[in-house]
């Protein structure tokens, strides 16, 4: 086998890996959107279906992990190719965790569908929309190798944290006003927390894009800078 043939096969394997990562990403994006729709529509049957729909995501995670290990072991990549595989492994893990969060939202939606909405109702669609935009933009930055776009996502995570704090305060007020609100409020609080965690994982993906493009590790940079 010639050196050129080996390089071409390596490029084909990398293209296959990227395609599988993007398929996995598409699945988790769809699951988040569908789980939020089930919550809003109080569609318990669909929520149950979605709560059991993450097996294809888990299978893709294992396929991608296996391919990454194969490429590292057999091709012994260097430089930017090493960064690509390291970043890919971490992105795969974050996508699987996001898939888990979508399942958790669906499970909560199924329980909440059996009881009336809060009065006054709490609308999580704004927070969900911003979270989904973060995920979509982090994946776009990965597809296009856009480190500048990835940097913007790191800042937007603070907005989701602030939105979660607002939701938390609102739900605590609901529970204090009427103890009968407690069960429903707790369910919505868990969903808001899952959305906040999805934003965290989207931030992780953006950080890996910066590492992939610039070779610069920006994880935990604030805590590292504060220790200096």
* Topology-level CATH name: Methane Monooxygenase Hydroxylase, Chain G, domain 1
Mean pLDDT: 89
Radius of gyration: 20 Å
Distance between the termini: 51 Å
Could you estimate the helical fraction of the residues in percent? over 70%
Total number of distinct structural domains: 1
What is the overall number of helices? 8
Outline the low-pLDDT stretches.
Answer: 222-228
**CATH H-level homologous superfamily name:** Phosphate transport system protein phou homolog 2, domain 2
Strand content: under 5%
Descriptors:
8 helices; elongated; disordered C terminus; mainly alpha; 228 residues; Methane Monooxygenase Hydroxylase, Chain G, domain 1
Per-chain topology:
Elements: H1 3-41, H2 44-51, H3 55-75, H4 80-112, H5 125-144, H6 147-177, H7 182-214, H8 221-226
Please tell me about this protein's structure.
There is one protein chain. The chain is built from eight helices and no strands. With 228 residues, it is an all-alpha fold. Helix 2 (44-51) runs antiparallel to helix 4 (80-112) and helix 6 packs antiparallel against helix 7. The longest helix has 39 residues, at 3-41. The model is unreliable at 222-228 (pLDDT under 50).
């Amino acid at each position: 086998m010639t050196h050129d043939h080996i390089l071409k096969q390596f490029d084909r394997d990398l293209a296959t890996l990227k395609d599988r990562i993007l398929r996995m990403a598409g699945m988790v994006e769809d699951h988040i959107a569908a789980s939020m729709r089930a919550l809003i529509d109080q569609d318990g049957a669909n929520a149950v279906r979605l709560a059991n729909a993450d097996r294809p995501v888990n299978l893709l995670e294992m396929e991608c992990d296996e391919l990454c290990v194969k490429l590292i072991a057999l091709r012994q990549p260097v430089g930017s190719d090493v960064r690509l595989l390291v970043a890919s492994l971490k992105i795969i893990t974050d996508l699987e965790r996001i898939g888990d969060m979508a399942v958790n939202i669906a499970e909560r939606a199924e329980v909440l569908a059996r009881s009336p909405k809060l009065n006054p109702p709490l609308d999580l669609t704004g927070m969900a929309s911003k979270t989904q935009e973060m995920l979509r933009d982090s994946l776009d930055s990965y597809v296009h190798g856009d480190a500048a776009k990835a940097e913007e996502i790191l800042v937007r995570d603070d907005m989701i944290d602030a939105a979660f704090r607002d939701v938390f305060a609102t739900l605590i007020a609901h529970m204090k006003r009427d103890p009968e609100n407690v069960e429903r409020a707790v369910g919505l609080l868990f969903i808001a927390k899952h959305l906040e965690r999805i934003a965290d994982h989207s931030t992780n993906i953006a950080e890996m894009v910066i590492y992939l493009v610039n070779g610069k590790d920006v994880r935990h940079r604030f805590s590292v800078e504060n220790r200096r």
